[in-house]
């Protein structure tokens, strides 16, 4: 199943009748009146918007705007998670996900100006780093986190906290690597499995 279609279905089932009416009103400049009158479910509206290239897995700005107007934070959160995961479900097992989240927090709090060198060691390309910086110009922690998420997406289910420690050491950030290893000991000796 296409993850984007699953997301649209989840959003559609989360809408009540009044919210669907509001969405139809907000789309009156994108969808003809006759088509709008026939729509009885969110999936029908989303199908039309897909056909007209108003929404897509790579362009969810219009959909995000619609959900913001409805003030549906829970649906916006689903959309945000989809975007962060690149449309893919989390491929890490829950224990590794927990270790990775701890590692991300620790790294974002402790890696300073050397962060670009560190994420390059992970294999994140300069063009990706530059795009992340442009999207988050004044928030270094967000730049670091987005770069780590890009690395994780690139690695798929093979990303691990062990890789992060190794990249820290390779970047000569040994004190941070030591601190991270100490922090991760709380999550079991299976860290390096």
TrEMBL record:
One GO BP: extrinsic apoptotic signaling pathway
Domain Death: 100-184
Keywords (A to Z) from UniProt: Apoptosis, Cytoplasm, Immunity, Innate immunity, Phosphoprotein
Record-level Gene Ontology MF annotations: caspase binding; death receptor binding; protein-macromolecule adaptor activity
Keyword Phosphoprotein assigned: yes
Xref: InterPro entries: DEATH-like_dom_sf, Death_dom, DED_dom, FADD
Cellular localization per UniProt: Cytoplasm
Coiled-coil regions listed in the entry: none
Residue span(s) of domain DED: 3-81
Secretion signal span: none
Matches recorded under PROSITE patterns: DEATH_DOMAIN, DED
UniProt keyword Cytoplasm, yes or no: yes
Pfam families for the chain: Death, DED
GO annotations of cellular component type: CD95 death-inducing signaling complex; cytoplasm
Oligomer and partners: Can self-associate. Component of the AIM2 PANoptosome complex, a multiprotein complex that drives inflammatory cell death (PANoptosis). Component of the death-induced signaling complex (DISC) composed of cell surface receptor FAS/CD95 or TNFRSF1A, adapter protein FADD and the CASP8 protease; recruitment of CASP8 to the complex is required for processing of CASP8 into the p18 and p10 subunits. Interacts (via death domain) with FAS (via death domain).
UniProt function note: Apoptotic adapter molecule that recruits caspases CASP8 or CASP10 to the activated FAS/CD95 or TNFRSF1A/TNFR-1 receptors. The resulting aggregate called the death-inducing signaling complex (DISC) performs CASP8 proteolytic activation. Active CASP8 initiates the subsequent cascade of caspases mediating apoptosis. Involved in interferon-mediated antiviral immune response, playing a role in the positive regulation of interferon signaling.
Protein name as annotated: FAS-associated death domain protein
Highest classification ranks of the organism: Eukaryota, Metazoa, Chordata, Craniata, Vertebrata
